[in-house]
Amino acid sequence: MNLQSEPAFTKSDLLDKIGPAPTVGQVAQFLRESSTTTWRRLRDGQLRAVGGPGTTRITLESLLAYLNGSQDYQLTHKRGRKPEEKKEVKPVKVK
Rg of the Cα trace of the chain? Predict the structure, then answer.
């Protein structure tokens, strides 16, 4: 049996552990990291959120893709580029 061919987590696993629409705090607790780190993952496009009235919730599909190491989900973040893409560095003119 090849362990890498099977996903580490399934949707039913996550539903049992953190529910259908986990908050940022719940995901941070599940990943055993600070909520600031989870917010950074959202900003960088590693996770995708659904904005609600007063609470930001993370989609299970994006969390599954993050945990299983695949990026099959749609990246939506402010910068408009994937996290692995580098920012163009413009040369600085010296006077």
Answer: 16
